[in-house]
Write a structure and sequence with these properties.
Blueprint: H1 6-9, H2 14-20, E1 25-30, E2 33-45, E3 74-79, E4 83-90, E5 97-108, H3 110-116, H4 127-134, E6 150-153, E7 161-165, E8 182-186
The structure holds a DNA duplex (13 and 13 nucleotides).
DNA sequence: GACAAGATTCGCT
DNA sequence: GCGAATCTTGTCG
């Protein structure tokens, strides 16, 4: 097992970490059952300077407090009252940077993901869908990636190519909405599912 | 205490 | 392609 160390998360640049997370493997063990996926799409949220970030302008509320706790924990929140979105908190204590996991490629136990998705496809594309497939809900907010039921490993899988674009669904962030903070990886072979 | 809006998904037209 | 679903959070009074 090659769990990512705290030093991976506590670097200061979430854009770099968002790119580095591509090809890493995210695991969850919920109800004593393992599932895993190869991270294939991420978005960076650049703390207080980023209008799209919940902590823009240094805002501190009960919800955003999590973002200030220092890298290496999970930030999950409910979007549109329906969907749970999974973020990786990065940087050090006091700096509210985060990376949103938007999609992954099923790597282990895709049959359980299909069950959790109620037979629907896609299995693991889209931020709300990612949380469903991994079995996560807001009750898993604040969990540590170093010592809990969710963690990320490095299996030395490198993307074959990486596409960069503007983030999705953040039009309200005005000029920051067009920043190139979204990263989409393709792999070779394209389907590594076990 | 009330209200508007949201880092989305799904089903139907 | 469009609109409903659904509820927490943040802001304002």
């Amino acid at each position: 097992m090659n769990k990512l160390p705290l030093s991976f998360y506590q670097r200061d640049n979430p854009v770099e970490i968002a790119q580095n997370l591509l090809g890493k493997i995210v695991w969850t063990c919920i109800n004593n059952t393992l599932v895993a996926g190869i991270i294939s799409e991420t978005e960076a949220y650049y703390g207080i300077e980023d209008r799209a970030c919940h902590a823009y302008g240094g805002r501190r509320t009960p919800r955003t407090e999590m973002l200030y706790q220092g890298g290496g924990v999970a930030y999950l929140y409910l979007c549109y009252g329906i969907h749970t979105l999974l973020n990786v908190v990065t940087s050090c204590k006091g700096t509210p940077h985060a990376v949103l996991i938007r999609s992954f490629i099923p790597y282990h136990n895709s049959s359980l993901m299909l069950e959790r998705r109620k037979g629907r496809y896609p299995l693991s594309q889209g931020p709300g869908v990612v949380s469903q497939a991994l079995g996560l809900s807001i009750t898993h907010n604040s969990l540590s990636f170093l010592d809990s039921v969710i963690w990320i490993e490095d299996h030395q899988i490198m993307p074959a190519s990486v596409q960069v674009s503007a983030r999705i669904g953040v039009e309200y962030a005005k000029e920051d909405a067009s920043l190139p903070y979204r990263f989409i990886a393709t792999f070779s072979p394209p389907d590594l599912t076990t």
